[in-house]
What we know:
Elements: H1 2-17, H2 23-41, E1 68-73, H3 79-86, E2 97-99, E3 105-107, E4 133-138, H4 148-165, E5 172-174, H5 175-178, H6 192-197, H7 218-225, H8 232-242, H9 254-267
Parallel strand pairs: 1-4, 1-5, 2-4
Antiparallel strand pairs: 2-3
Helix pairs in contact: 7-9
Amino acid sequence: MKGKRTFVLLVTILFSCSSNKYASTNRIYKRQVKSFAKIIRRVPVTDSFSNAPKWIGTTNFGMRKPDFVIIHHTAQNSCDETLRTFTTKSSGVSAHYVICKDGTIHHLLNDYLRAWQAGVSSWGNDKDVNSSSIGIELDNNGFDTFPQAQINSLLTVLAILKETYHIPTQNFIGHEDIAPTRKNDPNKNFPWQLLAQKGFGLWYDDTTNITVPENFNSVQALRIIGYSVSDSLAAIESFKRHFEMQDSSRALTDGDKKILYDLMKKYE
């Protein structure tokens, strides 16, 4: 709990420090949240339903909680540039968190609200990832490595999100995973294996003694993991980038198939 309080205090301080610069957009945020609150409080209009004469409020309900965390790189040149983008109405994009290269954490949206970060995407049977996920943007132009301070802050955020919302280990994934035909973020320098070792995402075990069945269906295995296979070649490319395979082709080697088979077994 102490770590959680420290984190909440940190993002509160950072939010306060930036409030002067973003005072106008903060006011817009508050107005929009209030409008959502009015919608939630409103008793549904029953006049349109001849067989629903009364509103009876149930006593058993809660907030819809996130089930996935999606990690992005910003593909921009600075945190300030990204924050301007996310506070400009016409951009039409947002995320819950932005983490700068120096480790500074910016919390932009309540975790229960729906950010516009996943776009046209899917993971398994989920076709509306925006509605079920938290989006985290890492300040990175798409080619650079990720500084240790930035990764340390990311791990802090992930640990709190996992504990708070009981997010399954396998549901920490990248933008490229949910949109393989459109996206490649976070880039090939992102340390997925390190995250898996910390409990955020899956990784494969030693495949030396793994024997892949003769009838192994690679495309079906990718689908079981969660990838959309409408474009199977794009799914293969995304899979290989996520699991740091040196061969960048859109074909699976025997070694790649061993890794895929091992991961598929973890999802079954």
